[in-house]
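User: My collaborator sent over this chain with a note saying "see what the structure looks like." That's all I know about it. Can you take a look?
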Amino acid sequence: KEKKNNLECEKMGGACKYQNTHGCVILPGECKSRKKHCCRV
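Assistant: Without extra context I'll predict from the sequence alone. Here is the result:
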């Protein structure tokens, strides 16, 4: 189950990055870490 969360983000063409990553456009995909958002790559 845990790996599924990052895959949801990656399917949307995003990557899990920390919230304070500069220029992160947040996508609705889930990330494993609560400190990270799904950012458009």
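A starting point for your reply to your collaborator: The chain has a mean pLDDT of 89.
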